[in-house]
């Protein structure tokens, strides 16, 4: 139909003008970034795994017209940043009215001048469908290594069930009413132990580093360490790794969930079993080339608490073999870590101890893993090898700050050279 139009109307200068106008309209409201999502240098510097499943006995209160301020600790630094928000266990679509990232000052405060707003597809708002994940647009943001950041999220509508990593060993904050994502000092209504909605922060590092994912349960999650102190064994390991000039830098990611199990689920507070969550919590992260697996003690102990026989070692080992196969299929080296002693813990049984020893025998000697970390020997009491050294624990299951540091110090760094 356009063949009858006057050619003079669509001469080259006019076409350039028209296309220029169309391009400017198409990009209106879009914040362009120096980096693209497809850049191969993206690596996750921090991550956490959604835990509490909806309809549990401890569903958190809903949030409406309030701002969440979450405190997280970077591993590697970078010059560009993007974050991932997940509505994994939500019961409805989740609206984010505004989001920002900043350098942490103290408590619920940020460093003045450090806050940057985040956008999603060029928009300040985003709706996360139930069960979905969204990634923010990349921004130029200097992320220091081993430093606390804050992510602030404004939720204008009733949140319903909030996807969370429930036991963060980090105090986070919920504001009074209103959008406070850019506020230096957040007006606090409540504190929370949870990281809500945020599941990862990715950076671009000029050294093209890769990541190590630490996969496990409460011992990897850091239960028993000092709150807000970044004293989990993965934190200690990251600091040690960065001090070692002979080992290349890696991002260190924590994929531990307190109470989590390899093959079974005994409580909705403790997340989906490792088989179910592995794709989301490890394989989907950016730049993972190595992982450490330390999980299985809850498969053994929680069965006993429920009046059942401990989960057989063969079942736990079968779960390991599946994780090993899936990691290797992605080219990820997987290092097995022995299960630490637990005599004296609330769910200890002699039968469970035999299962733990059988599992550790497989980890050490089966040759299934690409490397071994012997956490058992790092913390066990020489006078009673089925127990953690008393100075290193408060509950005979979880190490304290000193115990977590000893675990990190026991790792052979040549595994990552």
What does this structure look like?
- There is one protein chain.
- By secondary structure, the protein is an alpha+beta fold.
- It has 9 helices and 23 strands.
- The strands form 6 sheets. Strands 2, 5, 6, 7, 11, 13 and 14 form a 7-stranded antiparallel β-sheet that branches.
- β22 and β23 form a beta hairpin.
- α3 packs across α9 (401-409), α4 packs parallel to α6 (313-329) and α5 (297-305) packs antiparallel against α7.
- The longest helix has 17 residues, at 313-329.
- The chain starts with 11 loop residues before the first helix and ends in an 8-residue tail after the last helix.
- The relative contact order is 0.13.
- Residues 1-34 have low confidence and may be disordered.
Key structural traits:
alpha+beta; disordered N terminus; single chain; seven-stranded antiparallel sheet; 417 residues; five-stranded antiparallel sheet
Query: Total number of β-strand segments?
Result: 23
* Percent range of helical residues: 10-25%
Could you describe the largest sheet, including whether it forms a barrel? 7 strands, antiparallel
Task: Please give the alpha-carbon distance between the first and last residues.
Answer: 66 Å
Q: Please, how many helices?
A: 9
In terms of structural class, how would the helical and strand content be classed?
alpha+beta
Mean pLDDT: 91
- CA-based shape: globular
Oligomer: single chain
* Uncertain parts: 1-34
Estimated radius of gyration = 24 Å
Kindly estimate the percentage of residues that lie in beta strands according to DSSP.
25-35%
